[in-house]
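I would like you to sit down with the pair of lines that follows and say whether C-alpha coordinates and residues agree.
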Amino acid sequence: MKIRDNFLLREVAGNRIVVPVGEAADRFHGMLKLNETGAYLWHLLESPTDEAALMAAMLRDYDIDQETAQRDLQTFLNTLRKAGLLEEE
Protein backbone atom coordinates (compact mmCIF):
# COMPACT_ATOMS: atom_id res chain seq x y z
CA MET A 1 0.00 0.00 0.00
CA LYS A 2 1.04 3.59 -0.52
CA ILE A 3 -0.35 7.12 -0.73
CA ARG A 4 -1.98 7.85 -4.07
CA ASP A 5 -0.15 10.17 -6.42
CA ASN A 6 -1.09 13.85 -6.39
CA PHE A 7 -1.54 14.18 -2.63
CA LEU A 8 1.05 16.17 -0.69
CA LEU A 9 1.68 16.76 2.97
CA ARG A 10 2.40 20.41 3.71
CA GLU A 11 2.91 22.40 6.87
CA VAL A 12 0.65 25.44 7.06
CA ALA A 13 0.73 27.71 10.10
CA GLY A 14 2.17 24.90 12.22
CA ASN A 15 -0.42 22.36 11.05
CA ARG A 16 0.29 19.31 8.89
CA ILE A 17 -2.25 19.37 6.06
CA VAL A 18 -2.78 16.93 3.18
CA VAL A 19 -3.66 18.75 -0.03
CA PRO A 20 -4.62 17.41 -3.45
CA VAL A 21 -2.79 18.61 -6.55
CA GLY A 22 -3.35 18.08 -10.25
CA GLU A 23 -6.15 15.66 -11.13
CA ALA A 24 -6.66 14.77 -7.48
CA ALA A 25 -7.93 18.30 -6.82
CA ASP A 26 -10.90 17.54 -9.09
CA ARG A 27 -11.86 14.46 -7.04
CA PHE A 28 -10.92 15.39 -3.49
CA HIS A 29 -12.69 18.44 -2.09
CA GLY A 30 -11.33 18.97 1.35
CA MET A 31 -8.32 18.75 3.57
CA LEU A 32 -6.95 16.25 5.99
CA LYS A 33 -5.13 17.51 9.07
CA LEU A 34 -2.56 15.12 10.56
CA ASN A 35 -0.98 14.98 13.97
CA GLU A 36 2.70 14.11 14.44
CA THR A 37 2.11 10.36 14.28
CA GLY A 38 -0.13 10.70 11.23
CA ALA A 39 2.57 12.70 9.45
CA TYR A 40 5.15 10.07 10.44
CA LEU A 41 2.99 7.29 8.95
CA TRP A 42 2.24 9.42 5.87
CA HIS A 43 5.95 9.70 5.12
CA LEU A 44 6.33 5.92 5.46
CA LEU A 45 3.38 5.47 3.08
CA GLU A 46 4.99 7.63 0.40
CA SER A 47 6.82 4.42 -0.63
CA PRO A 48 5.15 1.03 -0.95
CA THR A 49 4.87 -0.71 2.43
CA ASP A 50 2.53 -2.94 4.38
CA GLU A 51 0.75 -2.89 7.73
CA ALA A 52 3.35 -5.09 9.40
CA ALA A 53 6.15 -2.66 8.49
CA LEU A 54 4.09 0.32 9.67
CA MET A 55 3.34 -1.44 12.96
CA ALA A 56 7.01 -2.35 13.48
CA ALA A 57 8.04 1.27 12.84
CA MET A 58 5.49 2.59 15.33
CA LEU A 59 6.60 0.15 18.02
CA ARG A 60 10.26 0.96 17.36
CA ASP A 61 9.94 4.76 17.28
CA TYR A 62 7.15 5.48 19.77
CA ASP A 63 6.66 4.55 23.40
CA ILE A 64 3.42 2.67 22.75
CA ASP A 65 2.05 -0.78 23.46
CA GLN A 66 1.11 -3.11 20.62
CA GLU A 67 -2.66 -2.97 21.25
CA THR A 68 -2.74 0.83 21.17
CA ALA A 69 -0.45 0.95 18.12
CA GLN A 70 -2.67 -1.53 16.25
CA ARG A 71 -5.85 0.39 17.09
CA ASP A 72 -4.33 3.75 16.14
CA LEU A 73 -2.82 2.38 12.92
CA GLN A 74 -6.16 0.86 11.84
CA THR A 75 -7.97 4.12 12.59
CA PHE A 76 -5.45 6.07 10.51
CA LEU A 77 -5.51 3.64 7.59
CA ASN A 78 -9.33 3.56 7.61
CA THR A 79 -9.39 7.37 7.48
CA LEU A 80 -7.10 7.31 4.45
CA ARG A 81 -9.19 4.58 2.81
CA LYS A 82 -12.46 6.48 3.32
CA ALA A 83 -10.90 9.60 1.83
CA GLY A 84 -9.59 7.59 -1.15
CA LEU A 85 -5.96 8.48 -0.44
CA LEU A 86 -4.58 4.97 -0.09
CA GLU A 87 -3.52 2.85 -3.04
CA GLU A 88 -3.68 -0.86 -2.20
CA GLU A 89 -2.71 -3.86 -4.30
Remarks:
- DSSP finds four helices and five strands in the chain.
- The beta strands are 2-3, 7-12, 15-20, 32-34, 86-87.
- The chain has one domain: 2-84.
